[in-house]
Amino acid sequence: MIREEFDRFCGSLPGTSNVIQWGNASVWKVGGKIFAICSHWGPGEDQKISFKCSDMSYQVLIEQPDIIPAPYLARAKWVQLAEMDAMTEEEIRAYVTQAHKIIAGKLTRAKRRELGLEELVAG
């Protein structure tokens, strides 16, 4: 998944916003809180995708080849794809969607209502 596809997909999720920061990283937020990043962090110059995970997914994913604890964010249960073929595009979309839901669930009820996310978090 190239950055343009990543950005297009993240932008299709409800209530999202995008900022470019930290050395040209594409940072995706819901309600002002980050759920996914496409950057050049970590070893090498290749594009990297990072996202928030559930505790269980984090433990499973970091045991997989080419998926590492995300630099600067691992303590918050984020992973980084060290190689873009570590997951299929379908898997990336599924995990990014779950990251969006996890972060949306941490927003206040008022913020979720403002962004139209009540059903997403309840479902």
From TrEMBL:
The keyword Protein biosynthesis does not apply. Pfam families: YjbR. InterPro entries: YjbR, YjbR-like_sf, YjbR/MT2646/Rv2570-like. Signal peptide: none annotated. GO terms for molecular function: DNA binding. Keywords: DNA-binding. It comes from the Bacteria. This is Putative DNA-binding protein (MmcQ/YjbR family). The lineage of its organism: Bacteria, Pseudomonadati, Pseudomonadota, Alphaproteobacteria, Rhodospirillales.
